[in-house]
Amino acid sequence: MTTFVLVHGAWHGPWAWDRIVPLLHAAGARTLTPDLSTVGDHGLHDHAEAVVAALDAVQEEGALVLVGHSYAGLVVREAADARPDAVGHIVLVDGWAGLDGASMFSLAPGAFADAVRTAAQTLGDGWRIPAPPPAAFGIVDADTAAWLAARLLPQPLRTFAEPTRLSGAVDRIPGTAVICEPQTYPFDRFGEAVGYRTRGLDGPHDVMLTDPEPLARMLLEARSFRNGKREV
Description:
Blueprint: E1 3-7, H1 21-26, E2 30-32, H2 44-56, E3 64-69, H3 72-82, E4 87-93, H4 104-107, H5 110-123, E5 128-129, H6 142-149, E6 155-156, H7 158-161, E7 175-181, H8 187-193, E8 197-202, H9 207-210, H10 212-222, E9 225-226, E10 229-230
Parallel strand pairs: 1-2, 1-3, 3-4, 4-7, 7-8
Antiparallel strand pairs: 5-6, 9-10
Helix pairs in contact: 2-3
């Protein structure tokens, strides 16, 4: 039985996967949804340690699919690098990713980094990034936008500034980059740069909220790939 470890992106929480989890369970999979806490001045390495703890809780070596949405693409790659034998496949959902030393600020356009730092300084006591509106995640439906707005949380600035620490072990793990279309940032380029196959999916950045069924199908399909080839 496959276990999916589903890791939410910035400003979100484990609730981001609420519409995906029942679909994976119905297909016979198990799930874990670790919390990348925003309580206190956490950094990317703190979040990677939380994911490592989740990986350590799973006893099925190599039968685990590690999924990271957006910012969590960086987090899951650092966690997988620490536990390469535990992870059979990595899936990035519109995920930021890079080589050793990459960070949100090094990958994102300069205007993005400047705006984030300014928001933290003026509205977040210098260390928290206020949550953007739901429209920033592509959510325009009024009901879903209201649901999301009530749950978004400030994000510690340090999570975007800290560079990832990778030994290279993560590069032995096959991966898939799910690219939401139309693209908002060059997530296809990020996936290709770390050697992942790319798969397009019509939907906004928060596709797990708007189109959970096709995303769940992609995740279930990814579990059959090991070492870059399909297993039957």
